Amino acid sequence: MRTLTALLLATTIGACGAHHHKHKQWSPLDQASTKAPLAELWENPDDAGQRDLFAGVGGTRLTPDPHASYELVARDTKGSSRGYDVRDASGLVWSVKLGVEAQPEVVVSRLLWAAGYHQPPTYYVPQWELTEDGHRTAQAPGRFRPELPAYRKVGRWSWEENPFVDTQAYRGLLVLNMLVNNWDLKTSQNVVYQLDRPREGAGRWFVVRDVGAALGYTPGRVLDGRPNDLAGFERQGFVTGVRGTRVDFDYRRPHNELFARIMPADVRWACELLARLSPRQLNDAFRAGGYGPDESARYVAKLQAKIAQGRALEG
Fold it and tell me: Is 50 exceeded by the pLDDT of residue 14?
């Protein structure tokens, strides 16, 4: 499976702008009598071991310039992480997320892409400037995601109702979210993209896009998950046991009903996907998220321990 780098860059970036559509949540009725092909969610990453997890799906040529100034288009006041829509000198519009979720989102997006799940390009920019009404101000580090004309957001999809609920790829996606401690599994985080032409085996993608509430600790109350918490990530477990055919996770958040049908085979399947990645690739993913060598090594060690536990799970 090819990366998107060449395909995305083949589009005229200068023609890209902010697109505003009315989005609706995906419904099974949208499929009429035809079930969506699995490739709209996941495609087997035969080249997983060769993927560049530092540059990511967009490659190096899309990497935003940390020394450039970006013109304000709009402020993003929705959700728990503030941010901006900004425009670079070429006319390309970027969605910028600031705050504690910026680093984990870049890392988790790369891991999902390496496991075969569709992802848009994302980058961590440690320094940049915002231009507003002619004034330039230094900004905090942020997650940059380009608004490319190659695909457009046409709706959202829910974890409870989608064409893939009976597939191992769907259950494996839930397992991968457990591996990275992503506690924010809401419909608002899931996007349906309509592509300008088939890519990665499909003309439409079902994407878990906003994945920054991860790489931390998920205690028991509803709103107290702590993303980007290395010590908390190291402290929290993964699989706590198997009851009959059901796997129990060290997870005490809402959405527990989503995991009721996950079996040991699903855990092994998902962990085998990430086991294809080398230690260097895993470190590259964390390096892309702006983590230093010591932090990256600790995160990778914990992640590898979880992968090993999942691969060895019996039942």
Answer: no
From CA 267, how far away is CA 312, in angstroms rounded?
Answer: 9
The whole-angstrom distance between residue 260's C-alpha and the CA centroid of its chain comes to: 23
SS (H, E, C) 55-119: CCCCCHHHCCCCCCEEEEEEEECCCCCCEEEEECCCCCEEEEEECCCHHHHHHHHHHHHHCCECC
Residue type, 270: A
At 85 the three-state DSSP class reads strand
Per-residue pLDDT band at 275 (split at 50, 70, 90): very high
Spatial separation of the C-alpha atoms in residues 229 and 135, rounded to whole Å: 34
| Greater model confidence, 269 or 315 | 269
Asked whether 264 and 244 are in contact (CB, 8 A), the reply is no
Q: Are 270 and 42 in contact (CB under 8 A)?
A: no
**Prediction pTM value:** 0.88
